[in-house]
Amino acid sequence: MRIKVYGPPGTGKTTTLQRTIDYALGNSPEPPLPLPESFPTDIEPKNIAFVSFTNTAIDVIGKRTGITTRSKEAPYMRTIHGLILSALAEHFDPAAVNNLGKLTDIQAEFAAKMGYYYSKDPFEFAEGNLKFNLITRAIELYLPKVGDVEEALKMIENAEDRKFALAWYRYKQKKMLMDFDDILIAGYEHLEDLYIPVDVAFIDEAQDNGPLDYLILERAFKDSKFTFMAGDPLQSIYGFKGADPRLFVQWKATKEVILPKSYRLPRKVWLLSQAWAFSLKIRGAAVEYKPSEREGRVTRMQLTNALNYAVEQAKMGKNVLILARTNSLVKLIGNILSIEFGVAYGHLKRASYWESHLLKFIEGLQMLKLWDGVTPIKVQDTKPITGLIRKLKDKHARDVLRTWRDSRQWSLEVQAVLQKIKKNPSAYFYLTDFDRQALKAYFSKARLDLTEELIVDTVHAAKGEEADIVIFLDFIPTRSEERINPLDLQEKLVAYVGFTRAREELIIVPTPTIKYHPMKPFMGDKKILQTVIHWKPTLLPLLH
């Protein structure tokens, strides 16, 4: 039996899947979904597969169900790449698999040789990263059609991109390397051997899969008695890697279930996001569900006012999420918050510069200030020492403090180095212009550490997240126009994901004027308003 579960934003999709697993294990008396009498209620974890896009999602379901994922107890609760590696282990070179841990370094080095910058930040869309994304997209889209990897890569339209892709393919062969695309390729080339012996299979975040993923998963679970395909096609924002919302919609199911109520979206945010969803006209993607009982708020606010509001609300304990389309815009807004507001902010799935450098450096300076210059400092927290190390110019001083931090053993050499730094800190530390301006603003203003409450990040990084207040930056840097076309369906889906992170309030910020940083509209606040006005008569009756 094939069951498709539509999980609109905040409707409890993960909880529903978790409770279904609990029911299958015999740990819950009632299923969260209508299931036939033949559905098993006493199976072991090894007879359940749970596949998702990230290891984080796998870990979450493991924690909620009490199952040790990626283990002998539950060998089929993995990402699709992990599932293929496990099921087809004999087809992979162990040395090449071990090198996957160094893949970002290898790709960065290769991209540099080809003349492109590659960022190790997973949410940075640098030119080198985009080249590798195009390779993944070509494999996803074209390999099932042509059946040959090299021929699939030759179908990349842009000559420069195609040259990069073929060079990387041949470089891997020469160096006996593999990347994550090669895992999918192996799954495709050995489809007949790809058999996962489970009674129940769950494919979560299915909207993030491309055509090759679907083909592989169909084969892997062809004999499963029950297969659940769960997701939200309107949150399919990885089109740059081959994902397509229509694949989820077109997946043939015996039964379809729509989770009926969002526990996140208040009425006004729901109205805007549903209007936007229906305006996209993806047949079968926009489904009917109800919002929470809260009224909520949607408003338009200029950038400076929005940032002021964000800081004030964060100071009051509200969770505030400022969302941008590009990483360069994230950095720009972070700089404004740092220099003009003196505020330390955070990111979602990575440390912000404040968290990784400046706050630790401030703690280190405070430690030095309080030190009497003689008494050994007991290391209870290594962060202040790390903060000093990262800003020290002198290699010898860095090495001495690093040894002290790692061993926690005080020495006369440590004392001598700290005495010199304490006496003349400006001679020992290297601070960028940004460091100086941010620290000056931080100390001269409110000294606000809002790294937990105030988050600035991209929409892609925020997928699966939520906040009390979401500030959606409805503009992009003008220089992004070559790779970001606001008229593309994928970009409209990105906007939808941004809108639907808000628990209480959604603030849309129109295109501002920022000196030296020309901007242009992303979706356009007027277009968003017109969409709501157009669909409001259709949607309001659904609230009752």
Describe it for me?
The protein has 544 residues and is α/β, with parallel strands linked by helices. The protein has 23 helices and 15 strands. The chain has a 6-stranded parallel β-sheet. The protein has a 5-stranded parallel β-sheet with strand order 7-14-12-8-11, with helices on both faces. A two-stranded parallel ribbon has the order 9-10. The radius of gyration is 26 Å and the shape is globular. The two termini are 33 Å apart. The model has no long low-confidence stretch (mean pLDDT 94).
What's the SSE blueprint?
Elements: E1 2-6, H1 13-25, E2 48-52, H2 55-65, E3 77-79, H3 80-87, H4 94-98, H5 103-113, H6 127-146, H7 149-153, H8 159-175, H9 180-189, E4 200-203, H10 211-220, E5 226-231, H11 245-250, E6 255-258, H12 267-280, E7 297-300, H13 303-315, E8 320-324, H14 327-341, E9 343-344, H15 353-370, H16 383-391, H17 395-407, H18 412-423, H19 425-428, H20 433-444, E10 448-449, E11 454-458, H21 459-462, E12 467-473, E13 475-477, H22 489-499, E14 502-509, E15 519-521, H23 525-539
- What structural class results from the helix and strand content? alpha/beta
Strand content: 5-15%
- Specify the biggest β-sheet: 6 strands, parallel
Beginning-to-end CA distance, first to last residue: 33 Å
Count up the helices.
23
Shape, principal axes of CA atoms: globular
Mean pLDDT: 94
Unreliable spans: none
Rounded to the nearest angstrom, the radius of gyration is: 26 Å
Strand order, sheet with most strands: 3-2-4-5-1-6
